């Protein structure tokens, strides 16, 4: 537990940063219980009985500890290739005929204990003209491991080759948990061109105070270019890779159609969050949290703190949010302009939407009854859900009757 004295010292140390990172006040909706949202969400009746209006089918099975999936969509051919990366460094590619191929990822010093391993894969929008793709993974050993980003050349018939480092976190840790690792290309954002990328980093669990320390890259969102350089005009010149601070273990990161950035992260026992991500902002962890320690002890006396930005959605009890997309396809009209969040603990899909200047969370689908690790779309706008564990699946969710 962090003492009040530590908070005081922390505030003094970060006072210059607060002057830079003062965030716009947000209209917030703190959901003390996600079920209360569902009971009181009269404006979200379009979601009612969503799971009764869809059909599901398995696209892939027997995936050993899958961590992320993405798609390559060929609009001209009306086809989708599905790509899955597994914890232990395997790339699975499923073509438009449903046939799969498996390839080993040649990742230097891959560390797979705990929550480690391959964490995410990102295919930039320039593909296939530029075949460069990004991977995040944990590297190192029990005593010194860290998040790393690499790039390689993707072929849908031969996997990813010519893998080269982009950058790795400067700080190593001795815990096998809380890596973050979610990748995002900045496309519609006014902040940067398509050459800019973000990656989330976790606090390392035992290093949670580092989320508030500017000299540390733990508990942050980092901005970088494909060549491993920091983005232009960084809000923290002394550590120019830092985009935002005060995060615990963020695993969801998307850009909306209007350029807004949304991030979700795991709280401790409660306090899972969705945040409206702003460059230079401080999201409070561990000074501010609506959750508590797994032991039951209070982590912080503060639910708000000057200069720190609160969440737009809070899940207490925890749902363990694992990934997120922004849905804008016409396949499911009721989901238009909605954040879709997968969850591990709740084993369900949640919809988050702005209603009357508040963000409301609604559980809409729990058909598989399994921990949901990731979500993507195919060329038709159907949902692709990746389940977690030693026998993971890719499940297609499509409208009934289509």
UniProtKB/TrEMBL annotation:
Signal peptide (from-to): 1-19
InterPro entries: 6-blade_b-propeller_TolB-like, Glc/Sorbosone_DH, Quinoprot_gluc/sorb_DH_b-prop
UniProt entry keywords in alphabetical sequence: Signal
Domain Glucose/Sorbosone dehydrogenase: 80-395
Cross-referenced Gene3D superfamilies: TolB, C-terminal domain
Top-level taxonomic group: Bacteria
Transmembrane spans: none
Protein name in the entry: Glucose / Sorbosone dehydrogenase family protein
Protein species of origin: Alteromonas macleodii
Source taxonomy: Bacteria, Pseudomonadati, Pseudomonadota, Gammaproteobacteria, Alteromonadales
């Amino acid at each position: 537990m962090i003492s009040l004295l530590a908070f005081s010292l922390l505030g003094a140390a970060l006072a210059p940063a607060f002057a830079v990172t003062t965030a716009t006040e947000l209209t917030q909706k703190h959901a003390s219980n996600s079920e209360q949202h569902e009971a009181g969400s009269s404006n979200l009746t379009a979601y009612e009985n969503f799971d009764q209006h869809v059909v599901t089918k398995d696209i892939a099975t027997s995936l050993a500890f899958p961590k992320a999936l993405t798609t390559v969509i060929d609009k001209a051919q009306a086809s989708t290739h599905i790509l899955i990366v597994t914890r232990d460094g395997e790339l699975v590619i499923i073509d438009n005929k449903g046939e799969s191929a498996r390839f080993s990822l040649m990742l230097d010093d891959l560390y797979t204990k705990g929550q480690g391993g391959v964490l995410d894969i990102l295919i930039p929008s320039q593909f296939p003209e530029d075949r460069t793709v990004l991977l995040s993974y944990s590297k190192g050993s029990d005593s010194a491991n860290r998040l790393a980003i690499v790039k390689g050349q993707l072929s849908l018939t031969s996997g990813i080759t010519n893998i080269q480092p982009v950058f790795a976190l400067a700080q190593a840790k001795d815990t096998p948990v809380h890596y973050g690792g979610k990748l995002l290309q900045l496309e519609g954002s006014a902040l940067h061109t398509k050459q800019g990328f973000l990656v989330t980093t976790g606090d390392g669990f035992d290093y949670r105070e580092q989320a508030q320390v500017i000299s540390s890259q733990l508990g942050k969102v980092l901005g970088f270019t494909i060549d491993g350089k920091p983005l232009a005009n960084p809000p923290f010149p002394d550590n120019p890779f830092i985009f935002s601070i005060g995060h615990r273990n963020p695993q969801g990161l998307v850009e909306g159609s209007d350029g807004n950035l949304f991030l979700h992260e795991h709280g401790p026992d409660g306090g899972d969050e969705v945040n409206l991500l702003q460059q230079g902002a401080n999201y409070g962890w561990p000074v501010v949290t609506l959750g508590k320690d797994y032991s039951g002890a209070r982590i912080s006396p503060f639910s708000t703190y000057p200069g720190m930005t609160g969440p737009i959605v809070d899940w207490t009890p925890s749902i363990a949010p694992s990934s997120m997309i922004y849905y804008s396809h016409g396949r499911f009209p009721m989901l238009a302009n909605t954040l879709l969040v997968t969850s591990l603990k709740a084993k369900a899909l949640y919809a988050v939407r702005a209603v009357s200047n508040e963000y409301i969370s609604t559980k809409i689908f729990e058909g598989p009854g399994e921990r949901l690790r990731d979500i993507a779309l195919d060329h038709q706008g159907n949902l692709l859900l990746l389940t977690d564990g030693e026998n993971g699946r890719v499940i297609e969710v499509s409208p009934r009757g289509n």
